[in-house]
Amino acid sequence: MRRVLRHSWLLTLLGVLLATAVQAQPLRRFALVAGNDEGGPGTRPLSFAREDARRMHELLLRLGGVAPGDARLLLDEEAAKLLDALTELEAAARVARARGERTVLLVYYSGHAKDGALRLGDSQLALEALKRRLETAPADIRIAILDSCRSGALTRTKGARRAPAFTIDTGGTHEARGLVILTSSAANEDSQESDLLGGSYFSHHLASGLLGDADRSGDGQVTLFEAYAHAYARTVADTADSSAGPQHPTFSYDLAGNGDVVLTDLRARDEGLVVPDSAPPGAYYFVDPSGLVVAELDKAEGVERRVALAPGTYRVKRRLPERLRIGEVEVRRGRLTVLDESRLRDAPFSDDPVKGAEPPGRTFWTLGLTGGYQSFFDAPTREHLFLSTPLLGAEVGLHHYFRKDWRWDFDLSLGGRRATLELPTLSGPRYRYSVLGLGTSLVAEWPSASGGVAPFVGARLAYLVMGRDFEDASLPDQLYAVLTPGLVAGVRLRLPGRFELTGRGRVHYLVYNVDAQRSLGYWELGALVTWRL
To answer: Which CATH class is domain 364-532?
Structure first.
């Protein structure tokens, strides 16, 4: 009997050691991240599915051990593109396994789901087909995270429909070892988005957990179990009082001896924010310059916590029973920043930097001053007719008026310089050349996951007035005015506070018909400093 017990104990110990050894082997990680705001007929466009995907992609590259070449980010793509990307990653995983590497394949989707299928624009991908594909994928561990969303008002109901909700049948997953499936809500529930968070509740709390809030063990790593438990608890709590009712994420799990999987390593980069053990306990919120809560942290008494924020400037908020403690902290690249409690100040609830921020999608104005330079492409034109000229001006921008991440600009610019009219045989009279431009532009922006950088491109229509004012009063002044269509492109950078810095270029076309019909083009380069009203 003792021998049997001894053998049983040895086998158990051997199994634990083998499982630990397997878990200790490095993992080659592959990630397919997709977000689609469109769901085809019978659905309304979402607001934040693409943003959820962008944030998850950036987080996996920065902290999740996924190399850029092993990740695919699909935004507003059809189902066929998703399957093509999955095929590419499966092929790479197969090669890695042939070399003896242990592999993880993670598929994240944020968007519409209806009638048992993901809805990617006008295309569909059956949930059962995706599940079967993952069951046979050539990876040791396969993880699917599905967040299906529909939009509403401030708190948006996602997936509200009379047709059957999408479901994950977990009955066969025990035959597919190493398969994990997370969904944002139960089969009979709606998932929800939040304007205040700039994304879905589930994806927000999952991402916040992966940044450090879910690291309850304090070992600097966030595991799959920790991330799910955190996202579940916070999602249920935040949606309990919503009009759609509480939302319960679901979890189907069978890692078959692989042990828990580390999803993010907070120590992967030696940067982020440390809330020291001496800091008061409570719930901390970290708000980016656009007003979004990018991470949360629940700190206990006498415990040091770490949140792996990307480099940038953040507002910090801790709620007290009768007031707020708020302040600003800058996370520098390649450095750990310690939160200094003395830099926080007391403020009334009316100064809440979260509730007082403009939620994404809400219109707001910016006012700015610009400096630039204008020049025509044709050399004779810019030397003798319309001179190259520095410009100064002002600009007003209306954000999110037509749709999210679209901007409508109105600009005024002035420029001038003194010159001499060159005649064939001698130098002519002196004059002042001047330019007046009135323009309007409609541009689309693509903000980065952190919200700090936003490239943009769009169309512009300008009314251009160019004139010569001769010093010799006997010579008549000359004036030419014309409408000029054009294109604009550039990048916008958020600065601390409400300021932004923009660099941009414009290209325009005009018809000059005074002495002959001529097609001319000109370009403008400029820099703009704006203040958010």
So the answer is: mainly beta
